[in-house]
């Protein structure tokens, strides 16, 4: 199967997770990180999911999946390990035009989930198109040693400078940005010297 990599804007949009186990927990965490409004349909939840429900961060429907549960949802992720439930959700989702992902059942998926590395607003997704999730995870773990914590601060700085320049009517081209985002800039950010990093970035962009 061929997959087209995209980044979905889910902030404030309703997403359904069918299941309440460890896999469902990982899927819910990913949706929450994207700002989605998450509903869980499952008779029981892991301790962490139960805590999220009590805190009001997710909604919990304490029963098995039933027809109609997809109403109003932008997408659904299924993590129950029950072939009959997998089939029922996938068929209803496709009939309603709701995107569906079923864990360990690629033939019932409209999309698959990559292995994700987050550093603030910087998100790196690694996928093998479903061929080997273990390899995708191994590559992501290798990237974690390269794309370290300071990249969150770097991403925030770059976003702030970019907004400022656009507001002032300045738009450096891609090559100029590439030259500006050099090792010295990353070093200044890593050393906790944001003022110097900002001045260097603006100078390298020709906007000092």
> What is CATH's topology name of the largest domain?
Rossmann fold
The CATH class label of the largest domain is Alpha Beta
The major pleated sheet works out as: 5 strands, parallel
Tertiary shape: elongated
- Distance N terminus to C terminus? 49 Å
Mean pLDDT: 94
Strand coverage percent: 15-25%
Number of extended strands: 7
Number of helices: 8
Integer-rounded radius of gyration: 21 Å
Q: What ranges have pLDDT less than 50 throughout 5 or more consecutive residues?
A: none
Secondary structure topology:
Elements: E1 14-18, H1 22-33, E2 37-41, H2 47-54, E3 58-61, E4 75-78, H3 83-96, E5 99-102, E6 115-119, E7 122-126, H4 133-144, H5 150-167, H6 174-180, H7 183-190, H8 194-204
Parallel strand pairs: 1-2, 1-4, 2-3, 4-5
Antiparallel strand pairs: 6-7
Mind explaining what this structure looks like?
- With 208 residues, this protein is of the alpha/beta class.
- It folds into 3 domains: 14-113, NAD(P)-binding Rossmann-like Domain (Rossmann fold, 3-Layer(aba) Sandwich); 114-147, Double Stranded RNA Binding Domain (2-Layer Sandwich), CATH 3.30.160; 150-204, no CATH class.
- 43% of the residues lie in helices and 15% in strands.
- The protein has 8 helices and 7 strands; from the N terminus they run βαβαββαβββααααα.
- It has helices at residues 22-33, 47-54, 83-96, 133-144, 150-167, 174-180, 183-190, 194-204; strands at 14-18, 37-41, 58-61, 75-78, 99-102, 115-119, 122-126.
- A 5-stranded parallel beta sheet has the order 3-2-1-4-5, with helices on both faces. A two-stranded antiparallel ribbon has the order 6-7.
- A hairpin with a 2-residue loop joins strand 6 (115-119) and strand 7.
- Helix 7 packs antiparallel against helix 8.
- The longest helix is centred in the C-terminal third of the chain and has 18 residues, at 150-167.
- The chain starts with 13 loop residues before the first strand and ends with a helix.
- The model has no long low-confidence stretch (mean pLDDT 94).
